Model the fold of this input.
Amino acid sequence: MYKKILVPLDGSEKANAAAEHAIELAAKLDAEVTLYHVIPALSPYGNSNLNGAYQQIHNEIQATGEETLQKAQDNFAKSGVKLDIKVIWGDPAEEICREAKEREFDLIVMGSRGLGEIRGFIMGSVSNRVVRHASTPVLIVR
Amino acid sequence: MYKKILVPLDGSEKANAAAEHAIELAAKLDAEVTLYHVIPALSPYGNSNLNGAYQQIHNEIQATGEETLQKAQDNFAKSGVKLDIKVIWGDPAEEICREAKEREFDLIVMGSRGLGEIRGFIMGSVSNRVVRHASTPVLIVR
Done:
């Protein structure tokens, strides 16, 4: 029933646990998984016309994001699930909903807010917005 | 991976659609489904010591709740999924989280808030609370 599953990762433990859960489900249902990392824009004015130090920081963050997903992809390779990775800049909740809709994902799997964790709190607020706004089913994993 | 799936129903179209989705998933994963209806307490002081008209109204609501679940169970019988039904009184979000935890469900599947629908709005606020408080993964279906 689910053929394409979108798994947003933010580098947190909660998101990694959700990804493991998603991979297990994908293996059962013979679905493909896209590991997806949205980097919040560096400047409130967007990433266009970056220069000098800005451009350098942008490139470093981009490289770290790609590395994080690459590691996750390597880590899950033994599952046998077809895995794709994608890094994008923008508002995480917006980009997750947009990606799911435009590329016709059947399911989004995300971590929930971890009590008392700052990173968990951030992820949580993204999860809440995705649950409210996505046009795709959303699975929230503890 | 999911062996026991809890599906709260409130009689809304959204909840019925979520139930269909849950049954399809359960069939794929060879899981059992419990259709679960929580009736908000009749009196803010609880249902104990009901008498006369109160007791009669209580019984009628209980019967309607059971009938709703019975119809859903009959409707899904052809899926071949093992179905159980349960009606309980209390706060819906609380009872859903409690049931999922105590009876060790692996997944809760619920409808999301339907924009502009009063019943959808009520279900939505229950979904939001369940997403926040459940210790079980929660799948929110549009």
Summary: Residues 32 and 82 of chain B are 5 Å apart (CA to CA). The radius of gyration of chain B is 15 Å. Residues 4-141 of chain B form a domain with the Rossmann fold fold (CATH 3.40.50.620). The helical segments of chain B are 13-29, 52-76, 92-102, 118-133.
